[in-house]
Design brief:
The termini are far apart. The model has no long low-confidence stretch (mean pLDDT 87). The longest helix is centred in the middle third of the chain and has 4 residues. The protein is 2% helix and 54% strand. The strands form 4 sheets. Strands 2, 3, 4, 5 and 6 form a 5-stranded antiparallel β-sheet that branches. Strands 10-9-8-11-12 form a 5-stranded antiparallel β-sheet. The protein has a 5-stranded antiparallel β-sheet with strand order 15-14-13-16-17, with no helix packed on it. The chain is flat, with a radius of gyration of 21 Å. The chain has 3 domains: 63 residues, SH3 type barrels (Roll), CATH 2.30.30.30; 60 residues, Nucleic acid-binding proteins (OB fold (Dihydrolipoamide Acetyltransferase, E2P)), CATH 2.40.50; 59 residues, OB fold (Dihydrolipoamide Acetyltransferase, E2P) (Beta Barrel). By secondary structure, the protein is an all-beta fold.
């Protein structure tokens, strides 16, 4: 444990350590009841397992500061269920398993730069850019006259991820996809 953090310093996204496990604060609320002492109601997500807890801490209570480091790395390739990344400064390579990556694997394209999270020297997660550009590899053609406002159709992207897109999207188009919710944002380039 690298230090301590007081509950008054809590903010969304802050990384804390409780019982030797690193967590990220998803939400918190300072509560001052009419009687009794103030407390902090929190929602935290484990950086190792993804489980969500909702502990209540006394105001002024201290929690651990985890030994966490973020490194800028470049995604290289996938081999089996392991995704390989390279440190852009010293060219060291590390890998993350498919289960650890979770939904992030749907947006990994070769040579994309990401931020890899390390806990006690071990890679435990990845932070993607807010959006990525991916090519459509499979998509049904739009039907002429099918002009219902807001109509969508499924499209498969180069990573194998399936997303709903407007009817005018065709195979070969490059789309901007939001990595936070996995939704289509806009068409970046048309095929050709």
């Amino acid at each position: 444990m690298a230090g301590v953090i007081d509950t008054s310093e809590f903010r969304k996204g802050l990384k804390i350590e409780i019982d030797g496990e690193p967590f990220e604060i998803a939400d918190f609320q300072h509560v001052k009841p009419g009687k009794g002492s103030a407390f902090v109601r929190t929602t935290i997500r484990s950086l190792l397992t993804g489980r969500v807890l909702q502990p209540t801490l006394k105001s002024g209570e201290k929690v651990g500061k985890p030994d966490i480091e973020e490194k800028d790395m470049q995604y290289l390739y996938v081999q089996g269920e392991e995704f390989y990344f390279m440190d852009t400064r010293n060219y060291e390579q590390t890998f993350l398993g498919e289960k650890v990556l979770g939904e992030a694997k749907n947006f990994l394209k070769e040579n994309i730069n990401v931020s890899v999270l390390f806990y006690n020297g071990k890679a435990i997660g990845v932070t993607l850019p807010n959006s990525v550009d991916l090519k459509v590899t499979q998509c049904d053609p739009g039907i002429r006259g099918d002009t219902v406002s807001g109509a969508l159709k499924p499209a498969v992207l180069e990573t194998g991820y399936s997303v709903y897109v407007p009817l005018f999207i065709e195979e070969g188009d490059v789309l901007k996809i939001d990595t936070r919710d996995g939704k289509y944002l806009t068409r970046v380039a048309t095929r050709g």
